[in-house]
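so my prof wants the structure for this chain in the tokens format not the other one, which i didnt know existed until like an hour ago. anyway here's the sequence
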Amino acid sequence: MSETATNDTNGKELDPKDQKNGDQNGEDDKKETQPPVKEMRAVVLTGFGGVKTVKVLKRPEPQLSEGEVLIRVKACGLNFPDLMLRQGVIDNPPKAKVPFIMGFECAGEIEAVGEGVTGLRVGDRVSALCESKAWAELVTVNAKYVYKIPAKMSFEDAVAVTLNYAVAYALLFNVGNLKSDQTVFIHSVGGGVGQALAQLAKTVGNVTVIGTASKHKHESISNVTNLLDHSTDYVQEIKKISPEGVDLVLDCLCGEDANKGYNLVKPMGRYVFLRRTSKLTTGETKSVLSLAKFWWSTDKVSPMRLFDDNKTLSGFNLRQLLYQQGKHEYVRDIVERVYKLYSEGQIKPLVDSSWALEDVGDAMQKLHGRKNVGKIVLDPFKEPIPRPPEEVVEKKRKGSAKEKDNKEKEKENKDSKEKSGQSGDNGDKKAEDGAENSK
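here's what i got, hopefully its the right format
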């Protein structure tokens, strides 16, 4: 197709090449006038596996949509589902494909409000339960998953309370139907949810709380009537405390512990399964063997057995309830009840430690090793732990390897010299013996 000439402002024809150059210059001018994309720091999952797949990267700031609020994040919560997500073993993972921003909960201040949002405004202090993307400096969240926090509640307390205590409240009172003069048995009572369960159980009159935790956590755990070491025969210990059994078992371990827990439940008692996590995160990465062992070691209880035993078996999954089953108003009611208890001083969250976003790998390893007592928090404003640059670490590693090789060579040379010396001594002795015999 032939190119058509265009007249300039003086009526003269422009060369087609000049016209193209003019168009290109116009496009360049448009690019120069466009504002640069604003970026933020975020914790990004780059692939499923160990902690090295989790990195702090720059990402474009999120754009506000209808029905959402934009939150400047002040604190984030770390939970076992985050470890499961990283390993790729979580049920109903977020719809986003890797790489994506991690994090299921955060707290902060609202910076912008989208169209159609009511009851929230700029400057409100809030917490939010997100379907991922919470671990960033900014996050957009649908308003139905956002909750105003009490005036005296810190952002750190907000992420220690909102998710853990909402789960605990539903387990104890909505599902477990805990009442006064009853006995409740809680696994992993030293964790964030475990501590929430123990505190909330104590708001009911004359309730006996029995809990298991690792021995090294015992001194830091309160609100538990009888604290047992999980590595011991805790079933026999519980039978000594409550020969008839317990009214409520709250189990986050499953596997063999589920079978033991069910047998501890007395007639008209309840066994509630609260998460499928601990037994699935035995290593840093996903283990098919652990999955198989978890499934195989758990008894399959038939409805007829429940009928004959007069027991109730149930479960509770807040993520599923909130994002898949649309029960956000149910969850909001529980969160507001929990905030009321906080304002009245009936509950006080225990924060184990606070970490910079850049130190999320260390925070995950602490949670993975069950070394925390209470909630682990990520703080976007916290300074990371000073670390040497990667090239220094690599140089040090190579230097250590070289030093090790030199030491091994020195040892080999020393051994060789000692052997040579022994051979020489033997030769001299033989020569002396020969000379003596000749005499």
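also thought this was worth mentioning. The longest helix spans residues 390-438.
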